[in-house]
Amino acid sequence: MLQLNPILTSPDASSAKSVVMAVGGAEDKVHGRQILTTFCQRSGGLDATIGVIPSASREPDAMGRLYHDIFMEIGVKAVEVLLVSDRSHGENPDLLERLERCSGVFMSGGDQLRLSSLLDETPLLEKLRHQVWQGQSVLAGTSAGAAVMGERMIASGGSNEPPNRSLVDMSTGLGFLPDVIVDQHFHNRNRLARLISAISAYPEKLGVGIDEDTCALFEADGHLKVLGRGAVTIVDPRDVSYTSYPHVDLTDPVSIYNLRVHILSDGDCYNLLTHRALHKTV
Amino acid sequence: MLQLNPILTSPDASSAKSVVMAVGGAEDKVHGRQILTTFCQRSGGLDATIGVIPSASREPDAMGRLYHDIFMEIGVKAVEVLLVSDRSHGENPDLLERLERCSGVFMSGGDQLRLSSLLDETPLLEKLRHQVWQGQSVLAGTSAGAAVMGERMIASGGSNEPPNRSLVDMSTGLGFLPDVIVDQHFHNRNRLARLISAISAYPEKLGVGIDEDTCALFEADGHLKVLGRGAVTIVDPRDVSYTSYPHVDLTDPVSIYNLRVHILSDGDCYNLLTHRALHKTV
Fold it and tell me: Which Pfam families match (chains A, B) (predicted)?
């Protein structure tokens, strides 16, 4: 296995495991695989057992196989594809037992509403949340798999318009990161306005817009670290002094004053407790 | 004339004239014509003589005729099309004399580099700047005609990427609003990243991103007022605590912490002296 991928090592005591990785979609699956390799390493490296939840996809079997092969190539010990294509699967004892063995769980892209409606309020989700919060499993999700991370989730939305109430459809997410609203394919698909629209509606949340092939890695100690080719854009509404939301017509622009915005790139950090961005040397 | 357009009135003492209107392109030319009518009104209403500079356009004759007809329909007294299609025209005594008569001057869309290279350092531009700054003429520009307003100008750029050094090509603008960098078609064409890229390079400037059919109206008293259907997005780098510009590779994302961003809509104000956004009731 070491010959296949000398990047992975055995886990050591310094690798804290309570980690959530929100990936902005289109992560490198072929060449450097920085993000996927980091996920495997954080999940236990050579000793990792990775669970793949491909439920967001319309072709979950093919999606499951794709990531199965990638993670095996990267060099983990085992990959379990956890096929949940019906809500009843979420209480299947065999699936729950296989989830238990996973030191890392990866949620694929697809449709975040499909993913959330298949998993929400199932024993499988409860178990996964418990394992993640206890530090037993590292969680990663890409695209739709990242969108579901918050308690509130962007289900869909438009672009090429200023922020407005009709630009975004919100729904209930899976709540792994209760305090953030995640958006993905961020600069790639012109999604600042829809993230600001979402934040206008939920100003107690922090907006996190993640570019393609880029990851916001939420550490157990309250730091968000950035890795990958693009940027993570933080939209912090804590200082907002005025917003016209919801007192405007559905399609009129929403005014919002004093948003604090950080553009973070590979190696940068953001402290979720102090709301300060930190340079990569920290 | 009053029958044609009862919106216009004769000027009164309360209408301060030292005004620059930066329009984000695609302003309504057919129906309500809110922005173009406001421009005519601020230029003197029924008594206005409007100069049209269609030099940004590849078809300046047709563009000149278009705005000629629109402004005449709105009901101004006269329209002068100031055809500058060669730098030598910028010292033509006839053109200079006709400019002198204009209480409002409108620069059309097209290519901002064509416009700036035709006008820069000509007597016509000097005269226009003098008239605008003295409050003799209201100045408006749409799209390319807005892009040239700053001392530094976004000549062209890309989108669908995070902010980076190669995302924007800067050039010299016409300097009517020395302290701002204007971008247009803003949310419509996903231009936040290029405006942030520009601001990273010129952090002493204020970024002003203007949506289509939307106007940032710079009053003589230091207020920016918003009118129109979209938003004006202010990107204020005054509090920036860190940026990796220019110490990153050309295409790598630029990190930038603590940008202050305001989304302003019709009726909102921004005080350019105190850098505070103000609600429309102010």
Answer: Peptidase_S51 (PF03575)
- ipTM confidence score: 0.91
Q: What is the pLDDT at residue A267?
A: 96
Distance CA A149, CA A141 (A): 8
For residue A92 the two structure tokens come to 């299947």
Find residue B260's DSSP bridge partners: A260, B236
Give A281 to chain B, closest Cα distance, Å: 12
How far is residue B13 from each of residues B1, B10, B17, B131, measured CA to CA in Å?
22, 10, 10, 18
d(CA B92, CA B124): 8
In a domain, A89, yes or no: yes
Count of domains in chain A? 1
Instruction: State which H helix or E strand residue B119 sits in.
Output: helix B112-119
User: Cβ contact (<8 Å) for B230 and A277?
Assistant: no
* Maximal C-alpha separation, chain A: 61
Q: Is B159 on the interface with A (CB under 8 A)?
A: yes
Which CATH number goes with the domain that contains B76? 3.40.50.880
Distance, in Å, from the CA atom of A50 to the CA atom of A220, rounded to the nearest integer, reads: 20
Q: What are phi and psi of A156, to 5 degrees?
A: -170, 175
Q: Is residue A169 part of a domain?
A: yes
The β-bridge relationship of strands B223-228 and B214-218 is: antiparallel
pLDDT tens for each residue of A138-196: 999 999 999 999 999 999 999 999 999 999 999 999 999 999 999 999 999 999 999 99
- CB-based contact, B195 to chain A, within 8 Å: no
Residue A2 lies in a domain: no
Asked if residues A280 and B248 have their Cβ atoms less than 8 Å apart, the reply is: no
The two tokens of residue A136 are 């037993």
Is residue B116 part of the annotated active site? The answer reads: no
Is A158 in the B-facing interface, judged by CB distances under 8 Å?
Answer: no
Catalytic site residue A89? no
Contact residues on chain A for B189, CB-CB shorter than 8 A = 160
d(CA A181, CA A173): 9
* Main-chain dihedrals φ then ψ at residue A164, nearest 5 degrees: -155, 165
Joined together, the tokens standing for residue A36 give 């996927």
Give the SS3 label for residue B257.
strand
